[in-house]
Design brief:
With 230 residues, the protein is α/β, with parallel strands linked by helices. The protein has one domain: NAD(P)-binding Rossmann-like Domain (Rossmann fold, 3-Layer(aba) Sandwich), CATH 3.40.50. The protein has eight helices and eight strands. The strands form two sheets. Strands 3-2-1-4-6-7 form a six-stranded parallel sheet, with helices on both faces. Strands 5-8 form a two-stranded parallel ribbon. Helix 1 packs across helix 8 and helix 4 runs parallel beside helix 5. The chain starts with 6 loop residues before the first strand and ends with a helix. The mean pLDDT is 96. It binds NADP nicotinamide-adenine-dinucleotide phosphate.
């Protein structure tokens, strides 16, 4: 398996699955573009990466200036090989009690922000006639679950978008890979928004019993190695 020299852009790289992926791919020789909002946390991840990194602060709730960010990365590393659309927020609130603004906020981050970055990168991937897009959906992108109506909707929406994109972009040698993790012990439940739009701030039992983000990243790299690498 060789990720040596590959440029991998990871969103949500400041913690959890994204952080673990960044550290492990960097160990395998990849150059990592680290994106999220928390710059201090990204710097901390960058310091622990074994290979070159480039920090691109990114708020997925505002899809502005993404083409500028794509150009910044290409100017810095000369190319982009793989985009890992991982950044996202979860939800812990009953549909009946959740204001529509909260539903929109979750969709904005998990769906619109996600696909906006892909759309900004697509012309570049089309031009180089090569590129891989990895999308972290969820088991909630396969079936709905208690307290996660908007989250599940956003993860289902990603499936519809990216399955279509996969068909459209095959001719341009751009591959699309959807991932559906189960429970991973990250800060996702603490950071999840409740029906008031505030952070849930609790480690849920299911999350606590989940596999580590390091093991998740390992499995992701192993299972996707033949599709992530050429
Ligand atoms: N943990 C699980 O059990 C599980 C299961 C299935 C799927 N997933 C998915 O895995 C992905 C990673 O989650 P995780 O479990 O690693 O949780 P996490 O530790 O909370 O990580 C979430 C990441 O997303 C970033 N993020 C959140 N809001 C953002 C925004 N508005 N703009 C840019 N970045 C934002 C966070 O960075 P900043 O706060 O610094 O912006 C953080 O790096 C998510 O898409 C999640 O839905 C997780």
């Amino acid at each position: 398996m060789s990720f040596n020299g590959k440029v991998v852009w990871i969103t949500g790289a400041s913690s959890g699955i994204g952080e673990a992926l960044a550290l492990q791919l960097s160990e395998l020789g990849a150059k990592i573009v680290l994106s999220a909002r928390n710059i201090e946390a990204l710097e901390n991840v960058a310091q622990r990466c074994k290979n070159e990194t480039f920090i691109v602060p990114l708020d997925l709730s505002t899809s502005a200036s993404l083409d500028v960010k794509v150009n910044d990365v290409i100017s810095h590393f000369g190319k982009i090989d793989i985009l890992v659309n991982n950044g996202g927020i979860s939800q812990r609130g009953l549909a009946a009690e959740t204001a529509i603004e909260i539903d929109r906020k979750i969709m904005e981050v998990n769906y619109f922000g996600n696909i906006a970055l892909t759309k900004a990168l697509l012309p570049y991937f089309q031009k180089q006639q090569n590129g891989k897009i990895v999308v972290i959906s969820s088991l909630s992108g396969k079936f709905g679950f208690f307290l996660r109506s908007a989250y599940a909707a956003s993860k289902f929406a990603l499936v519809g978008f990216y399955e279509s994109l996969r068909l459209e972009e095959e001719k341009n040698n751009i591959s699309v890979h959807l991932v559906f993790p189960g429970f991973i012990k990250t800060n996702i439940s603490q950071n999840a928004v409740n029906s008031d739009g505030k952070a849930h701030e609790k480690l849920d039992e299911n999350q606590d019993k989940g596999i580590s983000p390091e093991l998740c990243a390992q499995k992701l790299i192993k299972r996707n190695s033949e599709i992530i690498e050429e």
